[in-house]
Design brief:
Number of strands: 91
Shape: globular
Largest sheet: 5 strands, mixed
Radius of gyration: 35 Å
Length: 1274
């Protein structure tokens, strides 16, 4: 049709959503539409819109045009959009990338974009139903197939809005035509997805109580609703994936509740005991069925009633958009043991995301649940069957789990993930937002219980089906009251950054307001309406949205203001979409009671955008993994549908392309693979599954692990009785009653084979296992240790003097009684032990031996841990001098060692190379202290050696020649960088300790920065009750400093300033030490036991670290991210972590002492690890190249040659030094028979530097596996 007023041009275009349809565009130069035709606005034509006339066969070429308007001004050029160019199995188009900007976002005003949506909710509505305060979301997708992404916003009181993208950041509201308004529906979550395989995006909309609506796209710009799913469900978020492998998208709907007891003052519940189980049987006189309350309540044995959420819903798709519900109890969901669920999980669901967590090609499912409802992690077994993840795969979880996102944070090829909670970054809010927050009820000795803590949990994928929770290390543990977390590479540097929405209409965690409400309730009886109105005592929690930059893979720095993503308000759902087709991801946010946020991404960096054209019915390739390999960087992402909190991204993925890209690989859910090479930056690629080929890569062969778990040879579990340390010291920073066990290798029966000893807690018996010389062990009972130990045995030491003896340390920390023995010597066959040291005011800890005075026999160092009830006040340590087999206190060192502090571990080692062993102490808290030995007397050299300013929580100390220069270096275990102390952003932690209240009790007041308290008000009140007089509210206490809180009493307190948290390696350069942190994986958990040995036989010293600490105080999360870590040394002083698949070590408990020996005489170093209240673990080294076993025969008083140093050598060079020691690491002992790795060069000689000062060299015959060297007679 021709415009009568002017010439016109007619063009035929292909519809992007359906290539079989053509459109005719009519351009009129005068800007007027022909009579009877719709006057299309100029922006519509700009986005390549058209009036559909009739279907026709597809054209071989499709071309898209964009103009400044339907009607062109004379002489105006028509700018053309980038054209799709075909390739084999793909097509691409160039991206128009602006390079005149910097990374970050620009907030686009509603007056400019036309997106005027406001998610309104009247106060009256959430007066009677606070569930609505969970907000609503936003979905992004190109619903009309015109090449521009559109946006759908869910509304609570507001109608839903669908905004059609017109291009150039202009949108129009097409909700009425699209028929998606959902008036009075209280809409929450939303998602675009092609559920019937017709290549048009359908829309799914969740509501509170009105069902889940599937709206099918009719291709005419509107949607057709089908019968709703999830009737009466409190629908929140949604996620879609092909869970049963039939090619279509199935649907998981997360439910919360439609109403809650918190909105029903005066509700009447009746309980009864049925079959011995207390149960709620009626609600307001109605049965549970009639009251729609099946599964709603749990009645505990103490009479407490817990309200539960609703069960979620899983629906299977028939491929045509018809969904069938799946029962939770019919076999589709199995528990951790593979058994059918007895009942549906009635959880407070908020969000869920499908992700192939274990890379088996099947979508697994993570469900985030609020309150005490545990998060559910379902691993897809195939055929639509899910099984709960292993109980130990994830050690703890968030309490108020809001949202989840996955990303490969450290670019190791494995997906990590975050679950967000509501811990504040602000000191004031951390100390007031405490209502409904209780520490988890931990069961002593149970470590598979997955306790919940209120902070963001970040899970690092270990590659073996387990995860290490590293939230505090990442600096993402606290992001305020959070809702939607999203990993996105904002600056396109190749590492995913982080965005999160925050805020809440009412700060319902405010403890002061909670207390005020309780006071009002006590004053008089209130009507139900008055009780509901009390919630408005809580003020709105208006917070900034937050953005963080990924600095190095696992550390994030806040960039909210710098990146323009710091809107202050209340924001809920958030979605990513490329709204301007420049190849980076823009952001849409659904805000509460204010205009939606639209953010343009300004990154100027090169990028590659990827879309997928999947085979029907999964037309967008949902579940496919896209991998982009560039020089030195591999990025991978999965195409998801839904999964955001109440929201859904556009199905496009963006990758950094600053480095040359070698290939793009797509692993489709069908099992096929597409690969694209010759990739160029600043392009959008669409890969087509129809050209994909079956995967041909062979299944990667799993590497054989270095160690084999042979713990069954012992079948031993450490005994530990529960003890409440906090009744004696209310503000004790951690438990001191769970510090054992130590372990030891010793030749108890003098048969030349290493036996095992494991200390016990009170009430248990020491474990002694004799080597049967055939690769096994048999339990042995020491006559003198036949009875259960009355106290914790905290350290062991095997001494070989004239005969083998075993020294056992007993601590009186728990009973605090100054009587009975502290240190006893046990001999084989003797029923009566020898008491070497009596218990007194000090509870002892560490024990090690050396001939420090070089008189020919072994003397003892006894480390003082604390005075029971007075930790961390410094206490003295003791040297017991050996005079002809009789041990006596060396009082010459009493004054020197009285200042040592709270010793956790000790070691004798020759640091100066003069054959005089130095004493090294690890103090917790305190310094790594070094005492120089002049041959008979010690003097402290800590400061002189450069170690005087590193105050830490030093748990352990060990020595080895890590760089092969012949000097003994040190390695020290600390708390690491993944504890709750990291919340203070690197601030020094100060402990003021002493009598805080004047009542005679020794307490610890912890503060950080300028003196702000770390402990919460209710904790401090238990120790200093009169503070209530000065600080009537939580807010008042939070605003006070340590100086103000402690007042004049502060002057009488001792102070410790802790500034070092990393476990470190200390390279000895003769005049001091170069101190560097151990690798990152060593910082994720506290390090206790340390063993040094050449585990892989390459001639360089390696390390094993025993990790974790579960004896934390109630509000301090359990430190459990360690699984036992082997660090491979390179011979230069550097170490690299060995993954569990390579090491074979997977320790799940509270690891303590460890020690090494070649127990089966195969020339390979084996490993023994003790665990507090857990199984003792024995690992046989089975793959290493055989080393040389070296047995020393020393003088009568030191027959094992303790203190001697060994070096293998060739004709021209010597290898690293190995030292024979008695005690070290963490209260444990290695075998005195050392195994020396041979490396690549065959050594020809062994040099031994004896403690006497003599040096011997012994030739090594070719093929020798063991050598015995005797000390020369003086």
């Amino acid at each position: 049709m021709i415009c009568p007023a002017s010439p016109a041009t007619t063009r035929l275009l292909l519809c992007r959503g359906d290539p079989s349809k053509r459109f005719k565009l009519i351009q009129c130069s005068d800007g007027k539409a022909p009579e009877g035709q719709r006057a299309w606005p100029s922006a519509v034509f700009k986005r390549q819109s058209a009036v559909r006339l009739h279907p026709s066969p597809p054209s071989s070429v499709s071309r898209f045009f964009a103009t400044a308007g339907l009607c062109l001004l004379a002489g105006t050029a028509v700018p053309r959009a980038s054209e799709w160019k075909p390739g084999e199995g793909y097509r691409f188009k160039a991206l128009n990338v602006s390079t005149n900007s910097r990374a970050g976002f620009t907030s686009m005003a509603a007056s400019s974009t036309g997106i005027a949506f406001v998610n309104r909710l009247a106060r009256e509505r959430y007066t009677t139903n606070q569930i609505y305060l969970n907000g609503s979301g936003v979905a992004a997708g190109d619903y009309d197939g015109d090449g521009l992404c559109d946006l759908f916003f869910s509304g609570l009181d507001s109608e839903n809005k669908l905004y059609r993208n017109l291009g150039d950041w202009k949108f129009e509201d097409v909700s009425p035509k699209a028929r998606v308004r959902g008036k009075h529906f209280t809409s929450t979550g939303a998602c675009f997805a092609d559920v019937n395989g017709d290549r048009r995006l359908d829309l799914i909309s969740n509501t509170v109580g009105r069902g889940t609506w599937v709206l099918l796209n009719d291709g005419e710009g509107s949607f057709r609703a089908v019968r709703p799913l999830n009737a009466k469900g409190g629908g929140m978020s949604m996620a879609l994936a092909d869970v049963d492998g039939d090619g279509d998208l199935d649907l998981y709907v997360v439910n919360y509740r439609t109403f809650t007891i918190r909105d029903q003052p005066g509700i009447k519940l009746r309980g009864s005991t049925i079959d011995g189980v207390p149960q709620v049987i009626s609600v307001n006189g109605m049965s549970l069925e009639a009251a729609d309350s099946v599964g709603r309540f749990t009645l505990k044995t103490n009479g407490k009633i817990v309200e539960n959420g609703q069960a979620d819903r899983l629906y299977l798709n028939d491929g045509k958009g018809t969904f069938t519900p799946v029962s939770f109890t019919a076999g589709a969901f199995l528990d951790e043991d593979g058994e059918r669920l007895a009942k549906p999980p009635y959880d407070w669901g908020l969000s869920a995301m499908f992700r192939d967590m274990n890379r088996d090609g099947r979508p697994d499912l993570y469900v985030c649940n609020d309150f005490e409802s545990p998060d559910r992690i379902w691993i897809n077994q195939g055929q639509g069957v899910f099984r709960a993840i292993d109980r130990l795969a994830i050690r703890k979880s968030s309490h108020f789990s809001m949202g989840i996102d996955f990303a490969d944070l450290n670019r190791d090829g494995l997906d990590d993930f975050i679950v967000v909670d509501m811990l504040s970054r602000q000191h004031q809010l951390r100390h007031t937002q405490l209502s409904n927050r209780k520490p988890p009820e931990l069961r002593f000795g149970v470590y598979n219980d997955r306790p919940q803590y209120s902070y963001n949990t970040v899970y690092l994928n270990n590659g073996d089906g387990t995860y290490s929770e590293v939230g505090f290390h990442t600096n993402l543990a606290a992001t305020e009251w959070s809702w939607t977390p999203i990993f996105i590479d904002v600056d396109l540097d190749g590492y995913d950054d982080f965005l999160v929405t925050t805020g809440h209409p009412l700060d319902m965690q405010d403890m002061d307001v909670t207390n005020r409400g309780e006071e009002l309730k006590q004053q008089r009886k209130h009507t139900p309406r008055e009780l509901l109105e009390m919630r408005f005592l809580f003020k709105p929690l208006v917070l900034r949205n937050l953005a963080f930059r990924n600095k190095d893979g696992l550390r994030f720095a806040e960039k909210s203001a710098d990146w323009g993503f710091d809107h202050a308000g209340i924001s809920h759902g958030m979605a990513l979409a490329d709204l301007d087709n420049d190849g980076d991801l823009d952001v849409a946010v659904n805000n509460f009671n204010e205009a939606a946020g639209i953010y343009r991404n300004n990154s100027p960096a090169p990028r590659i955008a990827v879309k997928l054209r999947g085979m029907a019915p999964n037309t967008h390739g949902i579940g496919a993994r896209i991998t982009v390999v560039a020089d030195g960087l591999t990025q991978s992402q999965e195409m998801i549908s839904g999964g955001r909190y109440l929201s859904d991204d556009e199905p496009v993925r963006v990758f950094a392309a600053s480095k040359p890209v070698q290939r793009i690989t797509v692993a489709w859910p069908s099992g096929k693979v597409s690969m694209l090479t010759r990739v160029k930056p600043n392009r959008l690629y669409e890969l087509d599954e129809s050209s994909a080929v079956p995967a041909t890569d062979p299944v990667a062969k799993k590497p054989s692990p270095l160690f084999e778990d042979v713990s069954h040879l012992l079948s031993h579990t450490h005994t530990e009785r529960a003890f409440d340390d906090f009744t004696r010291q209310q503000l004790l920073p951690k438990k001191l009653s769970q510090e054992g066990p130590g372990v030891a290798w010793l030749d108890w029966n003098n048969d030349g084979w290493d036996d095992i000893a494991v200390s016990s807690g009170s009430g248990g018996r020491l474990g002694l296992f004799l080597n049967d010389t055939k690769g096994g062990f048999k339990k042995n009972v020491i006559p003198s240790l036949g009875q259960a130990s009355p106290r914790d045995q905290v350290a062991l030491l095997g001494l070989h003097t004239s005969a083998s003896v075993l020294l056992v340390f007993q601590s009186n920390y728990e009973d605090a009684l100054a009587f009975g023995p502290a240190l006893r010597l046990h001999r084989p066959g003797s029923a009566k032990p020898q008491d070497l040291l009596a218990a007194g005011a000090v509870a002892y800890s560490a024990l090690c031996a050396a001939d420090y005075d070089r008189d020919g026999d072994l003397d003892l160092f006894v480390g003082g841990r604390c005075r029971p009830g007075s930790y961390p006040a410094p206490v003295g340590s003791v040297i017991l001098r050996n005079d002809d087999g009789q041990f006596a206190r060396d009082k010459r060192h009493d004054e020197l060692l009285s200042k040592a502090g709270t010793v956790s571990a000790a070691l004798w080692t020759d640091l100066l190379g003069d054959s005089h062993p130095e004493l090294v102490l690890a103090c917790d808290p305190g310094l790594i202290r070094v005492y120089r030995n002049d041959g008979s007397l010690l003097e402290e050299a800590t400061v002189e050696l450069g170690l005087g300013n590193r105050v830490g929580f030093w748990n352990s100390i060990c020595a080895g020649d890590f760089n092969g220069d012949g000097r003994m270096d040190l390695v020290a275990g600390n708390i690491g960088t993944n504890s709750a102390y990291e919340i203070y952003d690197g601030s020094e932690i100060t402990w003021h300790h002493g009598d805080l209240s004047g009542g005679g009790t020794h307490e610890v007041f912890e503060s950080y920065g300028s003196g702000l308290p770390t402990r919460f008000f209710q904790e401090v009140l238990r120790a200093i009750p009169f503070l209530r007089e000065f600080y009537p509210t939580y807010a008042a206490f939070a605003g006070a400093s340590a100086r103000e809180i402690l007042g004049e009493q502060k002057a009488d307190l001792d102070t410790i300033k802790i500034n070092s948290f990393e476990s470190v390696i200390m390279i000895n350069h003769g005049a001091g030490f170069n101190v560097t942190p151990l690798p990152l994986q060593a910082q994720f958990a506290p390090v206790f036991g340390i063993a040094t040995a050449d585990f892989d036989g390459d001639g360089s010293e390696d390390l094993f670290l025993a990790q974790n600490f579960f004896g934390t105080r109630p509000n301090f999360p359990r430190m459990d991210a360690g699984w036992g870590l082997v660090l491979k040394g390179d011979g230069t002083g550097s170490f690299a972590p060995m993954p569990a698949a390579g090491s074979g070590i997977r320790l799940t408990g509270d690891q303590r002492g460890c020690a090494v020996a070649d127990f089966d005489h195969d020339g390979r170093v084996d490993l023994l690890v003790g665990q507090n209240a857990g199984q003792t673990k024995l690992y046989r080294n089975r793959l290493t190249k055989r080393g040389l076993r070296v047995r020393l025969v020393g003088a009568a008083g030191n027959p094992s040659g303790v203190g001697a140093k060994l070096r293998l050598g060739t004709a021209t060079a010597l290898g690293p030094t190995k030292e024979v020691r008695s005690g070290g690491g963490y209260r444990s002992q290695d075998s005195t028979v050392r195994v020396l790795g041979l490396g690549d060069e065959m050594p020809t000689r062994l040099q031994v530097a004896w403690l006497s000062g003599r040096t011997t060299t012994t030739a090594i015959e070719k093929g020798a596996t063991e050598i015995t060297v005797e000390e020369p007679v003086q």
